[in-house]
Amino acid sequence: MAERKIFAGPRVRRIRNGLGLTQTAMAEALEISPSYLNLIERNQRPLTVQLLLKLASVYKVDLDELQGEAGSNVGQLREIFADPLLSGELPGDQELIEVAEVAPNAANGIVKLYRAYREQAGRLSDLAELLAREGHETSLSGARLPIDEVRDQIEKRPNFHARLEDAAEAFHADLGLSAGDDLGVALKGWLRATHGIVVRALPVQTMPSLRRRYDRHSMRLFLSERLSTFDQLREVAMEVCLLSFGDQIQSELDSMALTSSEARRLGRFELARYAAHALMMPYVSFLSSAQRARYDIDVLRARFNVSFEQVANRLTMLQRPGAQGIPFFMMEIDNAGNRFRRAGSHGFPQAKFGGGCPKLSIHAAFALPGQLLVDHVEMPDGSGFLTVSRTLEGPQAGFGERVRRTALLIGCDISHRSELIYGAALPQEGTPPIAIGTACRLCERPGCLARAEPPLTRPLGLDEMVTGLSAFDFQ
């Protein structure tokens, strides 16, 4: 029988200590010398198949405990160190393998601590949302990553920046475009004429992992051919905005009071993105077109030659004093539920709408790619919203690559249903709306088939004689 060498010293020591045996006692039972067992426990000698069988026979040890534990721990540790708080701490997996092999108890402890940290972070977030709903501000969230700090600013503030709107509208007017002129051609011409910058699209093989790159030496802006024509236009518009009215962008950035250089860099990107949308869809003409089209996103995307996502973003920005549109809000997630973006004309309505209910159509949209899903949803307090959801396609994937698909929800108060083309798709008034909540941990609706977690505000009702529709019955 061919021998397969396995180095599992720390696990052998763990078994021995668990049985309360000395090295001498275990060595005698295994019919080897204590010194040889000592070398095995220090991973200086392998466990042969014969020794594995002996351990299984004498101590009733599960062989999987000796051969499979490290691999499991390595996978869990890899997930932990992929967390943004820890990413970059380790150059590779070798140290994780060493921790899992040499100190399995310590590895298990790290896994338990991380799970507890995630659970407590989730509970603090839920509690903060609950307090916010009742009008109490809280700083329970503690230290945040730069991206979380920027998202918090975007989600809480109205998605309207007057200085950027004015600058974008003035710049667009200066271009002197006539009906039918191509904005992308005009912006590229401005970059070349004013700054000597040439825009080029590069193939995937040349720029496999970047969407854009600006080469200061050759004065060329490279865009990936993976991007749609609409996304390429936005990248060009962002570059124009940063060069043409960077001072206004800087002023808006200063008003956000971000605390780190990385957060400011991310905030500058988001403001440039806002400015690009304002340049691509000038305020007055876009608002007028939106009102005439009854906010039909597909009509607007064709009229301004932009994407569904770009129009949805722009609709949340129409809050100029004296010339307001419908106060929309929006959110974008992937099919795992990860949040990419939340914004609103008055800030994202976190306390009132939440956006974390599994019954929202944004989750069902992934099963119906490209289709519009229109719903009338109602919160526990009786407030209602009209929501429109649709999937979005990411950069062009090559053969063998998985398509990046997200879903976007745009919504407004149900009182605006008559002003929207989508209001006609809703059931007749009097038909019960879809009952949703802000999030499972903050929702007290009884008998909800979609409930994923128990409410934070109610004690669990555990009764062996009665089982409810949800796995999390509560009193």
Automatic annotation (TrEMBL):
This is DUF2083 domain-containing protein. Keywords: DNA-binding, Transcription, Transcription regulation. Residues 12-66 form the HTH cro/C1-type domain. It comes from Peteryoungia desertarenae. Belongs to the short-chain fatty acyl-CoA assimilation regulator (ScfR) family. It holds the Pfam family HTH_3. InterPro entries: Cro/C1-type_HTH, HTH_RamB, IrrE_HExxH, Lambda_DNA-bd_dom_sf, ScfR_C, TransReg_Diox_bact_type. It comes from the Bacteria.
